[in-house]
Amino acid sequence: MEQLTSFGMFKALQERIVSESCPEIPTIVVPAGTCGQASGALELIRAAHHHILKNNLQARIRIRATGCHGFCQAEPSVYVEPFDTFYPKVDPARMKDIIQAALEGRTVEDLLYVDDAGGERIERLQDIPFYRHQKRTLLSQNERIDPLEISDYLKIGGYTAFAGLLADNDPARIIEDVKRSGLRGRGGAGFLTGAKWEFLARQADGKGKIIVCNADEGDPGAYMDRSLLEGNPHSILEGMLTGALATGADQGVLYVRTEYPLAIRHLNNALRQARELGLLGKNILGTGFHFDISLVKGAGAFVCGEETALMRSIEGKMGEPRQRPPFPVQKGIENKPTLINNVETWANVPVIFRMGVEEYAATGGGEETGTKIFSLVGKIKNTGLVEVPMGTPIKDIVFNIGGGQSGKGGVKAVQTGGPSGGCIPAELFDLPIGYGSLAKVGSIMGSGGMIVMDENTCMVDVARYFMNFLKGESCGKCFPCRKGTQRMYELLDDIAAGRGTPGHLDLLEELALVLKDVAMCGLGQTASNPVLSTLKYFRDEYLEHIENKRCPAGVCKALIHFSINENCTGCGACVKVCPEKAIKGERKQQHVIDAGLCSRCGSCKGVCAFDAIEVR
Amino acid sequence: MVTVTINGLDVSVEEGMTILEAARFIGFPIPTLCYHEGLSPYGACRLCVVEIGEAPRSRLVSSCTYPVEEGLKIRTASKRVVQARRMIIELLLASCPQSKTIQDLASAYGVRTQRFKQEYEDCILCGLCVRMCSEQMMAKAIGFRGRGTERSVGTPFDIQSDVCRLCGACMHICPACQLRCTYNEPEKAICNACANLRPPCLEKEQYDDMMCYMDPCVACEIK
Fold first, then answer.
1. I want to staple A224 with a disulfide (CB 3.0 to 4.6 A). Which of A363, A373, B95, B192 is the partner?
2. What CATH number does the domain containing A604 carry?
3. pLDDT digit string (tens) for A335-380?
4. What is the number of CB-based contacts under 8 A between chain A and chain B?
């Protein structure tokens, strides 16, 4: 494609792409993000290519490998345009049936999604409960574009909003619009994006200004940003271009963690394409506006998601935070004014201008606007990425979209906000999701991790797990964070091992409160949240561990023991899997577990078909 | 000049000063560990926290890094501040009880016991030696490695640094090992000269040849 040097050329190119797109030709869409590839999407694509080439169907059907569609539970899945058909967990051998059906305009009945509740087969993607209850403003673009093709992004109206704003050339109005849209930082802190942009725009121009996309997503079990980076890299570039136009920045940096190789590849490809087309670099669309973006790979530290640490990492120094003020916007990378926004924030910017500020501001409940992507994982039926308007009650996400608990135990709590977040008990599930509401109950929005826990989850163990993560990821610069997380882990470990005393709880709480107050950066200040929120809502579980030396959920190994009840049929399945040879018994007789040998690994419980293994 | 309120007292201080400098200038003591007048502020030990702003929106910040602002309300010894400092001291005492500096701090704040598992670490990673080496001695022989509990001060790959001039300034400024007389057995408060005092970049044998900045050097006195 030739370089675009005017708005006219941009418009003409876009019109040409749309007119040549032939939307009536059926397209087999396979989500092939990192997650899709791991569950076998590439096999599906291979099988589909094979069938199409063999039967010479190239002109009649197309294949598109896209980013993640969010429904992890159903991967590898296939989605067929324009019929909107959705097939979960597809076997590569069945690809030819799907292709034939698509050519004939029908569906493959036996491959369709089966609803758990109704038991009926659902044909259209939009009707599946997991998708039906969402509002997928950002994620729905993932189905429609091939992340490696800029023309796909242009086809769905990409870069139009930016080109329009560039033509108007009114930075103050862009900032005003972003402010009016009510967009808040999706990285977790929830600072008003428009206000942040205004700070940067007000800085003196002399040295040059930098805007950064923070793609150092490190929370365990959270991958919202990855799906956007992999599935729709151009939306992030367009967001950053808009930001640069509004704030007068001339340099952009994408800070991506090395653990996301596919995202890095897609971003590099997107950068190259945008540069070739003249949408990035010098003299963009012939307007004299210069802006270019470089990509920096993170070196694998959780703390580099914190903005001051991130800036140091970009400068090539050790990734550790420093005290603010001075804020990045006053003194950032190489002492230049710097603005840092999260991936999802940048991806929201083009959406605001494409759908209109008023409409965007009307999405969501109360003061918080727009949609937020959550990474719904844990003991839940439908795991995946869900996008809902702000203000959606937690119970809607857990039960309507997530489909409720996956195992036998009822849902006990959700943990939001990653390792520095808190646990919200089931009694509070009516809570509308938002920055303020989550903070009020002692958790945080964070970048959008949401882990569902059921009655087989021990809250002491959860707090211990997160504290172990934080103690390893604390940079170690500030003393209370380095030692505080280590000490909290030790105390929790004592409680889980049955060595806890009432003094442990007091000390734990005291330390957690002080750490929240004195730590240097966000990581340390929120590191207490897992402890404080579980202590607040699940104190009785802690007391049970300490006073009665009992783990109610049957998780803490030192406090549980396994036994076999009269349900046992003597089938011997448990005997075979027991690694310690601790189970004895005659065939067809009730077996017994030798408590002295038992290592409490739970293997026997996993294989018992008769519910005969009791954990107490 | 900017006007700030420190512990209820309205004072005029020079613009550009940090809260710590201003408070000490006026005469309010604030304890520090990782701060030194001759080095850039680091804000890592968090002992110098003060409360700024007004309840319920007041917060704790490290005074060594926070610049004074017009109208700022500062409390250097509120209940919240003292509670935080006591907990930090308790943590310090649990990790590095041999340090005279830390013992003095504990005594000043009435911290008599610590409730954690006792450790005997040599270093609290205040970073004074690293900054001393790079900012005053212009050597950059030592730096930080690792993160979290693995973090330590030393030379790259633990090989003696070519740029180290054996000046001993790192030892001189160290609050953890300064005047520590504990021999190899930390429990015994018997002087072992400075057996475990050596710059992180030095081989032990070379200790005899180097300049000593201990003032007064307990080891030399006893010898």
1. A373
2. 3.30.70.20
3. 999 999 999 999 999 999 999 999 999 988 777 899 999 999 999 9
4. 100
**Residues A191, A333: one domain?**
yes
Across A73-87, A537-551, B159-173, least confident range: B159-173
In A363-477, which residue ranges form alpha helices assigned H by DSSP? 394-395, 435-440, 459-473
Instruction: State pLDDT tens for residues A485-496.
Output: 999 999 999 999
**Helix, strand, coil % (nearest 5) of chain A?**
45, 15, 40
Q: Is residue A49 part of a domain?
A: yes
Could you tell me if A304 and A337 lie in one domain? yes
* B151 to A476: CB separation less than 8 angstroms, yes or no: yes
Say yes or no: A243 and A348 in one domain: yes
Q: Which residue, of A434, A454, A474, is where some domain finishes?
A: A454
CA A419 to CA A404: how far, in whole Å?
23
Q: Are residues A421 and A463 in the same domain?
A: no
Q: Closest to B148 (Cβ–Cβ): which among A471, A514, A520?
A: A471
Cβ separation of A483 and B84 shorter than 8 Å? Answer: no
Average pLDDT across chain A, whole number: 93
* A525 in B contact zone (CB under 8 Å): no
> What domains sit in chain B, N to C, each tagged with a CATH number?
1-120 (3.10.20.740), 128-222 (3.30.70)
- Domain assignment present for residue A141? The answer is no
- Model pLDDT, residue A238: 97
* Strand partners of residue B73: B5
Answer yes or no: is A106 within a domain: yes
Chain A hits for B20, CB-CB cut-off 8 Å, are none
Mutate to test the interface with B, among A471, A479, A481 (most CBs of B within 10 A): A479
Sign of CA dihedral A444, A445, A448, A450: positive
A342 and A415, same domain (yes or no):
no
Q: How far is B208 from chain A (nearest CA, A)?
A: 32
Chain-chain contact of A479 with B43 (C-beta, under 8 angstroms): no
* A482, part of any domain: yes
Ranges of residues in chain B with a pLDDT under 50 are 178-199, 201-220, 222-223
Q: What is the pLDDT of residue B177?
A: 64
Q: Which of residues 200-219 of B touch A (CB under 8 A)?
A: none
Are the CB atoms for A600 and A583 separated by under 8 Å? no
Residue A291, beta-bridge partner list = A281
pTM of the predicted model as reported, rounded to 2 decimal places: 0.90
pLDDT tens digit string along B49-106? 999 999 889 999 999 999 999 999 999 999 999 999 999 999 999 998 878 788 889 9
Amino acid at A283: N
Last-in-domain residue among A454, A475, A505: A454
Which residue do the tokens 């703390």 mark?
Answer: A303
Whole-angstrom Cα Rg for chain B: 19
CB-based contacts of A126, cutoff 8 Å, min separation 6:
A84, A132
Of A70 and B205, the structure prediction assigns the larger pLDDT to A70
Q: Which domain holds residue A112?
A: 17-125
User: Which among B84, B116, B127 has the least Cβ separation from residue A517?
Assistant: B84
Average of per-residue pLDDT across A383-394: 94
Inform me whether the C-beta atom of residue A503 falls under 8 Å from chain B C-beta atoms.
yes
Residue from A481, A509, A514, A516 to probe the interface with B (highest B Cβ count within 10 Å): A514
Please tell me the distance from the alpha carbon of residue A573 to that of residue A587, in angstroms, as a whole number. Answer: 10
Residues of A in contact with B119 (CB under 8 A): none
Residue A411 β-bridge partners: A454
Q: Which residue out of B42, B59, B115, B120 would a mutagenesis test of the A interface target, given it has the greatest number of A Cβ atoms within 10 Å?
A: B115
Tell me how far apart the terminal alpha carbons of chain A are, to the nearest angstrom: 68
Query: What pLDDT was estimated at residue B185?
Result: 42
What is the interface pTM, i.e. ipTM, of the complex? 0.89
